[in-house]
Amino acid sequence: MPESKDPKHYQKSIQTADAIMSQLSDEESIGYLRGAALKHLCRFGAKHGITVDSAIMDCEKADWYNRKLIDFLKTLKKEKAKFQHTPADNITNIFKGSDD
Asked: Is residue 7 part of a domain?
């Protein structure tokens, strides 16, 4: 599991991400973690003002979710889990056929 640098209000007996993932399939968990990482990168510096500190905070949060995703995928590999992930699930397909 990724190293936690959470403030006290995030420190609980179970990480919120783990509680959410406990209710999801493997595919849904992958989507959740990818989405959470992307969310933090997309709002880069916007939530707490555009400062170097807020940008670093968003990058660190994205990194936390990305590391959690990598650990999750390594666990699936170790367990030889199978899941269906098709190219249609890739974000680049959203833009196919759009006016460039």
From this structure: no
- Sign, CA torsion 54/43/83/20: positive
| Three-class SS of 15-31 | CHHHHHHCCCCHHHHHH
Q: Would you say residue 6 lies in a domain? A: no
Is the pLDDT reported for residue 12 higher than 50? yes
What are 53's two structure tokens?
A: 């500190």
* Residues near 72 by beta carbon (within 8 Å), at least 6 away in sequence: 21, 29, 30, 33
Range of the structural domain that residue 42 is part of = 15-94
Average pLDDT, the chain: 80
